[in-house]
Amino acid sequence: MALLLWLQSQLSSCWSNISVLGVFLTVFTLLFDFMKRRKKWSHYPPGPVSLPFIGTMLYVDFRNPHLSFNQLHKKFGNIFNLQNCWSNLVVLNGYKTVKEALVHRSEDFADRPYFPVYEHLGYGNKSEGIVMARYGHVWKELRKFTLSTLRNFGMGKKSLEERVTEEVGFLCSAVNSEEGRPFDLRFLVNNAVCNVICTTIYGERFDYGDATFKKLLHLFENSLNEEAGFLPQLLNEVPILLRIPGVPQKVFRGQKAFMDFIDVLIDKHMETWNPAHIRDFTDAFLKEMEKGKVAEENGFSYNNLRLVTADLFAAGSETTSTTLQWAFLYMLLHPEIQSKVQAEIDKVIGRERSPTMKDQASMPYTNAVIHEVQRYGDVVPIGLPHMTYRDTKLQGFFIPKGTTIITNLSSVLKDEAVWEKPNEFYPEHFLDANGHFVKPEAFLPFSAGRRACLGEQLARMELFIFFTTLLQKFTFVLPEDQPRPREDGRFALTSSPHPYLVRAVPR
Description:
Elements: H1 2-36, H2 65-76, E1 79-84, E2 87-92, H3 95-104, H4 137-151, H5 160-176, H6 185-202, H7 211-226, H8 230-237, H9 247-251, H10 253-271, H11 281-289, H12 293-297, H13 302-315, H14 318-333, H15 335-348, H16 364-377, E3 386-387, E4 392-394, E5 397-399, E6 404-407, H17 409-413, H18 456-473, E7 474-477, E8 489-492, E9 494-497, E10 503-506
Parallel strand pairs: 2-6
Antiparallel strand pairs: 1-2, 3-6, 4-5, 7-10, 8-9
C-alpha cells in the first residue's frame, strides 16, 4: 500500500512538472510568434485575421490561389495583406492597381523574395538565374544579355521565326499521321513548343517519339507540379525543415531530376563547343564566360548558365504550350469562331503558303482570337511573386521594404471595369467598331514592367504561327463519343485545361 501511495505521489509530481513545462513552452512559443509578426505600420493594407504561427494561410486554397484572392478582393478591396507564417504578403488586384505598381513604380516593386526550396537546385547568393534573381546589377546584366541574344538571333543558320516555321511543319506532319482519329493534342503541341526552345538554347531538336525528349518533358511537368500546393509554401516559411536529411530530395524529386538533365545537355554541349562558331544561346553564354573575372562578377558563371537556360526553358515552353491547348479547346467549343478564323486565313494567306509574322497585321480577327485566348485562358493567374525593393506607398497604403507582392493578374484580365464580357470568350474585346485590331492596356498576360516575361517575343511568334498554320491545314472537331470538354482549368503555377480529345480533319 505504501508503495502504491509513493508511486502515485511520484506520478503526480511528474505530471505537475510536465504541466508547468507545457505552459512554459506554450507561453514561449506564443511570445516567439508575437515577436516574429509584423509591426503595426500606419496605413498598412487591410486583411483577414492572422492566427498564431500559420498567419492567414487557412484563407488561401493553394491549389487555386487566384480564386481565394478574388474572394478576399471582394471583401478587402484592391490591396490587401496576408501573412504566411511570419512573412508579410500584399496582394494587388485590378488593372489600375497592378499598372501603378509594376509600371509607374517599377523599381519599387522590382525585387524578388528568396525561396529556400530552390537551394538544393544550386540557387544561392552568386547563382540565381534570371527569373527568380534578386533585383540588382547581376540581374540587369544577365537579363540585358539574354534579351539581346534572343532578339538578335542571327547566330547560326536560322532566325527565330525560321525555327518556329520549321517546327510547325513537323507538328503538322505529326497531326496528319493521326488520320482523323481522336487524340490528345497536348502532347504534340508540348513537343513542338519545347523543341523550339531546345534548338534556341541548346542547338538541338528531338523527334517527338525520342525517349530522351519524352523524359525531359516528363521531368519538367513533374517539377512544375511539385511547386504547387501548401507544402512548398510551408517549407519556404520554415526552411529549417529543409535541413532534415532527404526532405528536399523526396519532396522535390522532379525538380532535381530536371536540373540533372539540364546538366547533361550542357555538359554534352560543352564537348563540341567552338568559340569561333556560335550555334545557340548556350554558346553565346559560354563565350561571355571566357571574358574572365569581369564576366563572372556580372553573373556569367557555369552555375548561372544552367539556371538561366532552365529559366528560359520554363519561360519559353510551358505558358505557350498551355495557351495553345486553350486555343484549340475554344475552337472546339466555338466552331463558328474557328470558321471565321479559317476564312481570314484563306483570304490573306491561302491554303499553300506558310504563314509569317508579316501576315499578322492583315489578320485582325485571327489576332483578336489569339489575344482573347490569352485573356480568357488566364494561363498565369497570379504571376510570379515580386518583393518591394524599398519602402513605398500605393494608393495611400504604406508597404515596407522586403514585403512579398502578389499580382493577381486574373483580376486584371477579367477586370469588370475594363472588359465588356470579362467571364466569356469574346474576341470582340480586341476589335473596334470597324473590325480593326485594338489592344486594351489591361491586356497583361506577360505581366509588365521590369519583370515582364522573358519569353514574350518568342511566345507571340509561336502563338501566331502555330495557331494559323494548324487552322490553315486542319479543322478541329470534338469526337462524337466525347462529352463537352470542361472550361475550368487546373492550377500548377500555370492554369491548364483538363485533358480532352480532338479530331483533326484535313482541309
